[in-house]
What we know:
Number of domains: 2
CATH architecture of the largest domain: 3-Layer(aba) Sandwich
Number of strands: 9
CATH superfamily of the largest domain: TPP-binding domain
Shape: elongated
Number of helices: 10
Bound molecules: adenosine-5-diphosphoribose
Amino acid sequence: MSGSADLESLSRMLAGADRVVAFTGAGISTESGIPDFRSPGGIWTRYDPRDFIFDRYVAEPEVRANSWAMRRAFFAANARPNAAHRALARLEAVGPLATIITQNIDGLHQEAGSQHVIEIHGTAREVACIGVHPVGGAPDGCGFVAPHTWAFEQLDAGVDDPGCPDCGGLVKSATISFGQQMPLDAVRRAQAEVAACDLLLVVGSSLQVYPAAALPGEARRYGAQVVIVNDEPTDLDDLAHLVVRGRAGEVLAAAVAGIDSDAPG
Length: 265
Ligand code: APR
């Protein structure tokens, strides 16, 4: 883990910032028991990402069945927010953190109490109609949206391929799959937040998936400070004014405690 000097630098940068935006990836949730994607043992070391592209979900009932099985296993693990999620929620409560932009679909930032979260890869906590035959990665749903438990209830009732109760279209977890169009509203809000911040705090991302991974470079271009907290080197470490090597929970809890006058101890 980085030394105390880096932690002190991070605390000082957070304390001196007017508007912090956090950008989080799967690495912030591994301490909650959710595997990330590209670390040893990560999801893409166990599954082939080509089995999860949008057009195959539309065309192949087996891909839909595998996706529902993965979702059920995900929620069966009953992951809870960890110290890193709680530290960011505290940073929002005490001041400089305005928004979290997350690539994660687990909803743990909101469960930890964060109020302003932009989920640029959607959320696994809802399902949505994507239409009868959407093409080109563009969902064409009728507007049906339900909690993820609705799909599990359908599956438990013997419905192998849950369909939209309103239009008969396909139903999918409200996440953004490979080959699926990004949610333009969320991406635009994320870009606006990055343009307005004076410190971008990147936590637990390998910064390999675009357009999300373009955000640190955009922050630099707008003159913001960039800090990367990660337990391994990332492709964009050279962009950062400060890189703190270590576990997100430990680093963020220590850094936020350093500026939170109400923190215990
Ligand atoms: N503390 C700090 N860093 C961690 C921790 C931890 N506890 N656990 C893992 N990491 C680091 C890993 O070393 C890795 O560099 O977090 C990073 C996670 O990178 P990825 O697994 O690539 O996850 P992410 O960057 O979020 O992936 C982006 O890719 O497959 C798509 O849609 C998926 O949203 C995902 C996107």
